[in-house]
DNA sequence: GTCTATATCATGATAGAC
DNA sequence: GTCTATCATGATATAGAC
């Protein structure tokens, strides 16, 4: 949907709720602010979503899917491991740069909720995906193409290198004294840098 | 202070407030819950801290210092770069394992506040520290001891590799299907793994 | 479907007795 | 210093007119 099209009320609500929940989290978000940003009033907001909790669930579910859908496709494919890693970095980098508040939001809300909530959203999805990746790593190691490494640690390394600098954006800007433009450039450089860093670390 | 000593009311408040703010963040925290965990009532809590905001500032300031004090000492010393990196990983790993909610808390609250708030807490401190590190990296690169790398990117890499898996603990436990004990073991392995990974990536 | 007005409830904060 | 009781505010949620 492009900006100039007329949004339905439902769409206006979703868009506004995404903004506010992603920025402020569940507890920081205000139904009032969501209604305002959607250009409607609180009564109408509650007409569409009976409660803040319902609206949140809807927003969170979409966010969670954005975070895991791409990784899943990549890790399950049968491309060579180096291209998998590069694709993983590129896809995640695209996603977090386009939705800078998404990772923090998902991470925080997963943390706020009990373990069974986390399992419900992640477990089934992720087991197969990961074991495929693990096997791919192992065979490359066996062939002497990669330095031996625990596949779990490697996967965590890659994701850390991409997501953390987005979650920590405010610190980063202070830490290396960046303006907004410099930060964007830094992250764009980072795309290549992370790929090279991981590649270099895996040299046998 | 050990557990069996009698805590002053002030100490009980600080300890309880740390727990609650670190777990729930500013907006999720309740003065009621802080009073309960401290074993006092809300009236007394407000006698010590006139407002939630004041109490928060006090807790946040300590948390922020925990996050930057160690890194600063290490990066400013004149040890060889490889030992600096190892020390940095060890120190940060110790800290985040002992205070698993600390990084998320600091990161979130920095994000919730305006840029000048961030600058106030970080800027002056960090400039000198970083330029020292940058020079150390550069001379090692010049000597051919390290593969050329942007010092900013390297520093962000190291911090990402240590902190992210703590911030993302719930995801991690699902992603690689870990129990609490397995997670702790994973993180303990990680201490060596990160050092080796960074070291390997920097081989010329 | 959309709005205004209102009910309900929880929270931060204060007042005052002891 | 510590407690109980209460206030004031602001947020979610509902009722009802249009």
Question: Can you characterise this structure?
Answer:
2 copies of one chain form a homodimer. Chain A folds into 2 domains: 1-50, Arc Repressor Mutant, subunit A, CATH 1.10.10.60; 64-201, Tetracycline Repressor, domain 2 (Orthogonal Bundle), CATH 1.10.357. Chain A is mainly alpha-helical and 204 residues long. Chain A is built from 10 helices and no strands. The longest helix of chain A has 28 residues, at 115-142. The mean pLDDT of chain A is 91. Chains A and B meet through helix 1, helix 6, helix 7, helix 8 and helix 9 of A and helix 1, helix 6, helix 7, helix 8 and helix 9 of B.
Short description, anyone?
Chain A has helices at residues 9-28, 31-38, 42-48, 52-76, 81-98, 102-112, 115-142, 151-167, 169-175, 180-201. With 204 residues, the first copy, chain A, is mostly helical. Chain A has two domains: 1-50, Arc Repressor Mutant, subunit A (Orthogonal Bundle), CATH 1.10.10; 64-201, Tetracycline Repressor, domain 2, CATH 1.10.357.
């Amino acid at each position: 949907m492009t900006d100039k099209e007329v949004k339905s009320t439902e769409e206006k609500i979703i868009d506004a709720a995404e903004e506010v929940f992603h920025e402020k989290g569940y507890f920081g978000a205000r139904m009032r602010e969501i209604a305002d940003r959607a250009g409607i009033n609180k009564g109408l907001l509650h007409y569409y979503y009976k409660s803040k909790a319902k609206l949140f669930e809807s927003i969170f579910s979409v966010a969670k899917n954005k975070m895991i859908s791409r990784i899943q496709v990549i890790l399950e494919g049968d491309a060579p491991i180096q291209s998998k890693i590069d694709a993983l970095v590129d896809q995640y980098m695209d996603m977090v740069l386009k939705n800078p508040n998404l990772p923090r939001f998902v991470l925080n809300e997963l943390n706020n909720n009990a373990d069974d909530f986390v399992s419900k959203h992640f477990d089934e999805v992720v087991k197969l995906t990961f074991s495929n990746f693990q096997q791919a790593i192992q065979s490359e190691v066996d062939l002497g193409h990669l330095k031996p490494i625990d596949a779990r640690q490697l996967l965590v390394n890659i994701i850390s290198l991409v997501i953390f600098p987005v979650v920590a954006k405010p610190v980063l800007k202070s830490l290396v004294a960046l303006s907004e433009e410099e930060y964007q450039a830094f992250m764009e450089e980072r795309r290549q840098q992370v790929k090279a860093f991981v590649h270099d670390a895996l040299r046998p």
